[in-house]
Design brief:
17 strands, 471 residues, alpha+beta, 6-stranded antiparallel β-sheet, globular, binds flavin-adenine dinucleotide
Length: 471
């Protein structure tokens, strides 16, 4: 197998990438270190082992972004989706699977494929120079030896071992009759306008209640092997800051200085929460400095008490986990290759997507891109209006770095509608010409986004699209 493409990691992304390559008629060597070496979370030697929940989340292709991603993957002949559908267990509108059956189906499909060879050994350093095309899909728990080799290539700051996630809000759910745009002291900074942040003001009473709520809230528990999670880059969780003193947050991420509320210029806010643009589209804003380990339900409850965020919809909630991932927007090209060494392509959670389905989807794209490259063709990118395209954009360029100096701001994300380019015209009327309001309007917008995505996917597949796997 001299010209085989090497895939390192037989998890969700690596299994899908190997399958896509083999289905294009290309030989693949899949390197999986289990059971010779294990991660802290995997328990079996099966490929595509689900390390925690057995759910692929919502299967609603019309009004849910991950449901749409499922459907696109099915259209693209995904092995992961085929195995999930074949091993489904009842879970309402979610797609949940029998984890043993799911992993066995994926393992058997790859073991029995004539073009796939599976090598059960750790790749414990930089892949040998004669591996001309490599897909690295070693996941959030990449083995330390390989992680070290990657870090030597990328530079220390560009491969993180923990995420520190601040919540992200859909911009159009922030009440701008309460909040306002302004940068602190109106400073434009290198890439800003002087009015780059959205500011939410709190009175003293509201601040006190907010701090009390943080102190009393339920925290998410860490896995035993994560318990030594360091608080790095000065990224303390907000509840830990609150524990250090009532005024700590007001002198940290909630400081009110250099800001004037145009809605009430005569009133100085006691504290301010700032939100900063997170993606190039300007549809998502993150709560600056608000990394947190509070339980998700508690985050929604408490953040909605902040003036201006009463109706906030969250694209991502905060968290802090053991997670190996690249600063992909800086390091990877548009087809997921490491700019510094293009024979290495990355896939899965290590690229900065989050979740089983998203990891598999990025694995699918990596397989298509590597296949095209092997045939001497230019890889075709999925349209940004599709779930695959939107997710790829997040990983390779959709995120905007902080406009002021500070730690790197790229953090992992699930697929969500905030990553999609907005509709040219959002639907405002129902099928009978009636004016749509609130929930009905939101649902109509989601339906329009998913219909656009599936139509664009079909056009992409039919036109200049990749040589798609034959079933
Ligand atoms: C504890 C934990 C719980 C999670 N819970 C959920 C959840 O409930 N739902 C969800 O959607 N997502 C969850 N995730 C995220 C989930 O891991 C990823 O979404 C998904 O598994 C990532 O897919 P992947 O293919 O990138 O990595 P993985 O599925 O982890 O696959 C990576 C593979 O690479 C192998 N490997 C690592 N290093 C080497 C090496 N040097 N040589 C050879 N092989 C190597 C590993 O053994 C593994 O099989 C969780 C993650 C963790 C760590």
């Amino acid at each position: 197998m001299k010209s085989a493409i090497h895939v390192i990691g037989g998890g969700l992304a690596g299994s899908e990438a190997a399958w896509q390559l083999a289905q294009q008629g290309l030989p693949v060597v899949l390197h999986e270190m289990r059971p010779t070496a294990m991660t802290e979370a995997h328990k079996t030697s099966g490929l595509a082992e689900l390390v925690c929940s057995n759910s692929f989340r919502s299967d609603d292709r019309e009004t849910n972004a991950v449901g749409l991603l499922h459907q696109e993957m099915r259209r693209l002949s995904s092995l992961i989706m085929r195995a999930a559908d074949a091993n489904q267990v009842p879970a309402g509108s979610a797609l949940a699977v029998d984890r043993v059956g799911f992993s066995s189906t994926v393992t058997a499909a790859l073991e029995n494929h004539p073009l796939v060879r599976i090598e059960r050994a750790e790749v414990a350093g930089l892949p040998p120079a004669d591996w001309e095309q490599v897909i690295i899909a070693t996941g959030p728990l990449t083995s330390p030896a390989l992680a070290k080799a990657i870090r030597n290539l990328t530079g220390e700051a560009e491969l993180a071992f923990f995420d520190a996630i601040a919540p992200i809000v859909h911009r159009d759910t922030i009440d701008m009759s309460v909040a306002w745009f302004q940068s602190r002291y109106d400073k434009a900074g290198p890439g800003g306008s002087g009015a780059d942040y959205i500011n939410c003001p709190l009175t003293r009473e509201q601040y006190d209640r907010f701090v009390d709520a943080l102190l009393a809230a339920e925290k998410a528990s860490l896995h035993e092997w994560e318990a030594s999670t360091p608080y790095f880059d000065g990224c303390l969780p907000i509840e830990v800051m609150a524990e250090r003193g009532r005024e700590t947050l007001r002198h940290g991420p909630m400081k009110p200085f250099g800001l004037t509320n145009p809605h009430r210029p005569e009133e100085k806010p006691y504290a301010v929460i700032q939100l900063r643009q997170d993606n190039r589209l300007g549809t998502l804003f993150n709560l600056v400095g608000f990394q947190t380990k509070l339980k998700h339900g508690e985050q929604v409850r408490i953040f909605r008490t902040v003036p201006g965020l009463e109706k906030a919809e969250f694209a991502r909630l905060g968290g802090l986990h053991r997670n190996t991932f690249l600063n992909s927007p800086k390091l990877l090209d548009s087809t997921l290759r490491l700019e510094a060494m293009p024979r290495l392509r990355f896939a899965g959670q290590i690229t900065g997507c989050e979740g089983y389905v998203e990891s598999a989807a990025i694995g699918l794209l990596a397989g298509l891109f590597a296949g095209a490259e092997q045939r001497g063709e230019a890889p075709n990118l999925p349209p940004p209006t599709t779930a695959h395209g939107a997710l790829l954009q997040h990983v390779t360029g959709g995120h905007v770095e902080a406009i002021d100096a500070g730690p790197r701001s790229f953090q992992p994300m699930n697929v969500n509608f905030g990553l999609f380019p907005p509709l040219a015209r959002a639907p405002s009327k129902g099928p009978n010409g009636e004016r749509l309001r609130e929930t009905a309007k939101t649902i109509a917008k989601k339906r329009a986004l998913t219909a656009r995505a599936l139509a664009d996917l079909e056009r992409w597949m039919a036109g200049a699209g990749p040589a798609l796997a034959a079933e």
